[in-house]
Amino acid sequence: MAFPRSKKTYDPESLYEYAVEALGRRMRSVAEMKRLLRQKNVAGDRDAAIESVVQRLKDHKYLNDSRFAEMYATFRKEGQKLGRQRVVTDLKVKGVHGDVIEKSVGAAYADTDEEKLAREYLKRKRVKPPAKARRDDAAGRKQSQKDTARIFRMLARAGFRTGTIFNILKKWDVEEEVLSVLEEEAIEPAKREDAD
Questions:
Q1: How far is CA 143 from the centre of its chain?
Q2: Most buried of 7, 20, 58, 156, CB within 10 angstroms?
Q3: b/e for 75-89, b at 16 or more Cβ within 10 A?
Q4: How far apart are CA 188 and CA 177, in angstroms?
Q5: Domain shared by 127 and 97, yes or no
Q6: Highest mean pLDDT among 6-15, 132-141, 180-189
Q7: In a domain, 171, yes or no
């Protein structure tokens, strides 16, 4: 169920106050702030009022995509233990420019051991290595394969490179057969993207 839209009409000053309050709740990129402000009823020239508010926020240093990207990347890496690619993707969705993303994420992940970070992520999520199945236990082997695939996909969604994921799985003594199937699964989307 959608909430009814507010019928309040904002003038440039009240729109600015609303924007400051919104930034007080959480940091936002310039694009996110513009999206938020576009949802409001604005008296007069809407686009000019939004641009004016955004410029004022920048002038007062309340809105800065570089600082936003740096803090976002650092938090996602240190707090949530996410991989570099996930942070890059999330910042793109938030409307941050590619050059700013590359600089900020590059700085945040400069001296990071990705495998160690991936292990910390697994520990944070309380993921344990898949149970080894006996060679004659078909049901156990199938469950072990499912668990391995689940862990692989979880790490891929968290932004870790497939090479790092395979290093972790190999150290867990996952069967080569399962690793080769997962490797094919990882390669297929890349082939489809190249064909497009």
A1: 29
A2: 156
A3: ebbeeebbbbbbbbe
A4: 17
A5: no
A6: 6-15
A7: yes
Average pLDDT, the chain: 88
Same domain assignment for residues 32 and 101: no
C-alpha to C-alpha distance for 81 and 2, rounded to whole angstroms? 33
Shared domain for 55 and 69, answered yes or no, is: no
Cβ pair 87, 108 in contact under 8 A: yes
Please report whether residue 160 resides in a domain.
yes
Q: How far apart are CA 145 and CA 130, in angstroms?
A: 8
Question: In this structure, how many other beta carbons lie within 10 angstroms of the beta carbon of residue 95?
Answer: 15
- Provide the whole-model pTM: 0.81
pLDDT 10s digits, 140-190: 677 878 888 899 999 999 999 989 998 998 888 777 777 777 877 776 655
| Structure token pair of residue 8 | 């309040």
Per the CB < 8 A criterion, the answer to whether 146 and 190 are in contact is: no
| Alpha carbons 111 and 62: distance in angstroms, whole number | 29
E strand or H helix that includes residue 194: helix 176-195
Q: Which domain, by its residues, includes 130?
A: 114-195
Q: pLDDT over 70 for what percent of the chain?
A: 89
Distance in angstroms (rounded) separating the CA atoms of residues 74 and 118: 15
Single out the residue of 25, 144, 182, 161 nearest to residue 86, CA to CA.
161
How far apart CA 69 and CA 138 sit, in angstroms, is 48
